[in-house]
């Protein structure tokens, strides 16, 4: 399955009314789920921040995979909180199916807060960083 096919499948899943989808092909297995009922709302409310939502926009993970803040374990991170980045500049990597995918800044912006943790799994749509457009 190509990245393009994977992105199209995720887009169609997001637009559908489905709450879950499981696909298995040869050596690839994919499972997409969405909170669809009232039961998951209680745990989500317990994890919600107590104060108002912070200002700015959030850059979300475009796919499921392992988050990396730098190009190598001993390299400096692509961005840090307070960094000014240009549109198209790499802000992190997500490894999926043994392929490294660059996540790029959507516009010229100031990185306000980083949410991703190096080496941890991120889900599709998970917040990676909060930024303020310049």
Describe the structure.
- This protein is mainly β and 134 residues long.
- Helices cover 15% and strands 37% of the residues.
- It contains 2 helices and 10 strands, in the order H-E-E-H-E-E-E-E-E-E-E-E.
- It has a 4-stranded antiparallel sheet with strand order 3-10-8-5, with no helix packed on it. The protein has a 4-stranded antiparallel sheet with strand order 7-6-4-9, with no helix packed on it. The chain has a two-stranded antiparallel sheet with strand order 1-2.
- Strand 6 and strand 7 form a beta hairpin.
- Pathway: Lipid metabolism; fatty acid biosynthesis.
Structural class: mainly beta
How large is the share of residues in beta strands? Answer: 35-45%
Q: What is the helical fraction, as a range of percent?
A: 10-25%
Number of strands: 10
Low-confidence stretches: 37-53
Largest β sheet strand count, sense and barrel closure: 4 strands, antiparallel
**Strand order, sheet with most strands:** 3-10-8-5
What is the mean pLDDT? 81
Order of SSEs: HEEHEEEEEEEE
CA distance, first residue to last residue:
37 Å
Total helical segments: 2
Q: In angstroms, what is the radius of gyration?
A: 16 Å
The global form is globular
Domain Lipoyl-binding: 56-132
Function: This protein is a component of the acetyl coenzyme A carboxylase complex; first, biotin carboxylase catalyzes the carboxylation of the carrier protein and then the transcarboxylase transfers the carboxyl group to form malonyl-CoA.
Keywords: Biotin, Fatty acid biosynthesis, Fatty acid metabolism, Lipid biosynthesis, Lipid metabolism
Pfam families: Biotin_lipoyl (PF00364)
């Amino acid at each position: 399955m190509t990245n393009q096919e994977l992105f199209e499948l995720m887009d169609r899943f997001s637009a559908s009314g489905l709450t879950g989808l499981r696909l298995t092909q040869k050596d690839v297995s994919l499972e997409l789920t969405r909170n669809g009922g009232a039961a998951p709302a209680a745990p989500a409310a317990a994890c919600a921040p107590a104060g108002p939502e912070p200002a700015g926009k959030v850059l979300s993970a475009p796919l499921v995979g392992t988050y990396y803040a730098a190009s190598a374990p001993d390299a400096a991170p692509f961005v840090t909180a307070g960094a000014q980045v240009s549109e198209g500049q790499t802000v992190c990597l997500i490894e999926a199916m043994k392929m490294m995918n660059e996540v790029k800044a959507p516009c010229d912006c100031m990185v306000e807060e980083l949410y991703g943790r190096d080496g941890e799994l991120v889900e599709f749509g998970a917040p990676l960083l909060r930024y303020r457009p310049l």
